[in-house]
Amino acid sequence: MDSLRRETGATLVLVVGVIAALSILSSALIMLGMNVAQNTGAQTQEVKAFNVAEAGLDTGQATLWAAWPGPSATEPSVDAGAFQAQFPSSTFPDPASGPFIDVQFFDDDGEPLPTPGINRAAHVDQNDNGIMWIESTGATGGGSAKVMACVQKVSRDLQIRDGVAIYSEGDVEIKGTGNQPVVGLDPPATAAQVLAGGNIDFNGNSDVEGGVGLEEYTEATLQDVFPTEILLSIIESGKSFTNWSAYTSWKSAHPGVEPFATDPRIIIIENGDVDAKSLPDTDVDPANTKLDTVWSEEDPGILVVLNGSFNQTGQKKTIYGIVYVVNGMILGGNAEIHGMVVAKGWANLHGTRAVDYNPNVIANLQRPLTLSVKLVPNTWRELDPSGG
Q1: What 8-state DSSP symbol labels residue 382?
Q2: What sections of 278-320 are H helices per DSSP?
Q3: Tens of pLDDT along 133-147?
Q4: Whether 232 and 321 share a structural domain
Q5: For residues 196-217, average pLDDT
Q6: Is 95 helix (H, G, I), strand (E, B) or coil?
Q7: 56 is in which domain, residue-wise?
Q8: What 3-state DSSP class applies to 195?
């Protein structure tokens, strides 16, 4: 009997010991699980913050592409509110401290690639060499991250032929009312050409201003006047819309933003016709009419209509720039294009003055066109967000 009691007591001690051990192990596992969960949550916040910072870097790159800040430009900036609105607050909550995104722009120190330094005192391309640094700090919840990279502007000079008011591979019809020439010259121009691959039909010399030459069945090709590679560069760097309805829908979704007014002033309509009276006015012509205009002599633009025609009838619309139409063009009434017209298919110009060759517009469009802003290899780096 005593032996049985001793065995029962030993068993009880063993059971109690096992239970105690399991209890300790369970507590350890719970603590471990809590620590892992906390660490995982912290790591998740850091990853999200890193993604925010990377997105800020991309947005900074796009900001420089839209308007590269030369030595006399204003300091570029990223709209923090609009940026944060792109992230769902349920997944990317406000940071515990500091801004959600902070994007800074700095000039380089002028050292040659591939290892340019940073000039933190300058926030534009002060040395005008097409190289800058972007620093982006992102924060969400309890996480934060900072990244930076050097970027380089990729540009190309537009080599547009001087002295051509109108070019068409087809026929050109010029018939005015007699009040003033349909094709004229803006000072300081003294001469320009109308080049047509087909016939030029016009009423007489009164339809063109003195100094405007007419050359039908011209041997000059579109490649001579407006090279394909230039057109492709324009299309690559411009703002493209599927058709005019797509443009108006985009404007409705982005109130207060006018694609015609912001740089680059290049608009591409891929399909369908465009009516000039629908174009938005962006500037005031201080030297001449004091009326609103589409673009200006100092800051002209380019409109490309790829698979459609360009029409102007009725309401007056004044345009400073180049209008490039793959199909054809009808200009009637009070249409005024100051610059150059390329109507690949055909051009019918009726009414009063329709096209004025403007050499200043062409000269201002010959400025280098920013095609892209690319990262300089091996300059991306992640920084300590708590550091300076």
Answers
A1: E
A2: none
A3: 999 999 999 999 999
A4: yes
A5: 88
A6: strand
A7: 52-154+373-383
A8: strand
